Amino acid sequence: MKYVSTRGKAPVLGFEDVLLSGLARDGGLYVPETWPTFTEDEIRSLRGLSYAELAVRVMTPFIGDALTEDELRAICTDAYAQFGHPAVAPLKQLDGNVWLMELFHGPTLAFKDYALQVVGRLFDHVLKKRGERVTIVGATSGDTGSAAIEACRDRDAIDIFILFPNGRVSEVQRRQMTTIPSANVHCVAVDGTFDDCQDAVKDMFNHADFRDAMRLSAVNSINWARIMAQVVYYFWAGLAIGSPDRTVAFAVPTGNFGNVFAGWVARRMGLPIDRFVIGSNRNDILTRFFETGEMRKDGVEPTISPSMDIQISSNFERLLFEVLDRDGAAVETMMGRFRQSGTYALDGEPLARARALFSGVRLSDAETAEVIRSVHARTGELLDPHSAIGVDAALRGGIAPGIPVIALATAHPAKFPAAVKDASGVHPDLPPRLGDLFARPERITVQPNDVGALERFVRQTVEAK
Ligand SMILES: *Cc1c(COP(=O)(O)O)cnc(C)c1O
Whole-structure pTM over 0.90, yes or no? Predict the structure, then answer.
């Protein structure tokens, strides 16, 4: 399988290079040169497989001969053995036609584990085969750092440094990062803000000498392999409810458009999906786009669903490429416009294509809290704020009656205990396997807000090994 850039100018690459490089050299995102598809019978033959085996079958066409099927099977089996529910991604019926798929049974209790647990192992496998090592650096405002750490811990060919603002992440978030005892995990509390951390990471990547000497890398949300691994749970849900003999719809709380784009890929591969309703909080750039056809960047406002507090949906570029008939030059023009003026617009046939499959709802924090309260009162199910936005998108998204709609629950309620308690009156407990989180020893290095000092720390730590 070969991959092309959404901006049409980067070299065509194979799976391994796409995995390791993330962003394409022309600034675009990699997508498969052609979309693999399954016939109805092939989809039917996927029924009844374990989650790990389904992952092998769905990902094999994208990986081609970069890994043998046995190598991929070993990675998937090991990755999903770490999950805290035997079904990996269990489905629950909430209302007559509304289902909840729980994507929070991974090690950090959020859906990103479903892809990152595989991607960390794929990185390690490919690097070892090539006799290479990388240093992954990333910044987190609290929520995403632990998923990256859990993905990379104990991987021989990887060191990971996660920078976060000292004293400005919640205790659960901090402990989920700092209590990992692995020698290749380095948690750095920076005396500064999240923006300072992010700027320091950008500076490190821009210092070519440092970047090359440390072989800096990232496992960020635009990496194709993350999308690929997320396609699996769309098939999982569809099959559980009767696909391919039944058409389903999905409701997805989204910020970066990564999660829901994986759903689009599942549909493109042949899974009968009617359409997608996306849920956003006050940071509603995507919902506004589907309403007006205009992508317009606004300021980011903090909400009780912080993992969706973004105003640039990087992965949307992959859908743009498709609705523009894979015209890389047109994508590049639009993205250039967006970078300069913070806005671009789509109309005519491309907009109609996007709108035929996607629509959006937006919720204020008060509305999100009301959904948490009312769903708990009606069904006993305790939702985290992101999942509540997904459920409301399922309920209000205008899906035709008779089509089952699956809302993605993207985080465990115990990840956002204050918001859940305020809304429902119930304090969500951590699952038993994380119950001793507050008793585990922490490992943490405090560093000044100074990129020179941070680079020295990374260099010394890597070279000491
Ligand atoms: C990252 C995240 C999201 C948003 O996912 P995207 O792929 O950026 O759309 C939603 N909910 C939770 C809990 C997350 O961690």
Answer: yes
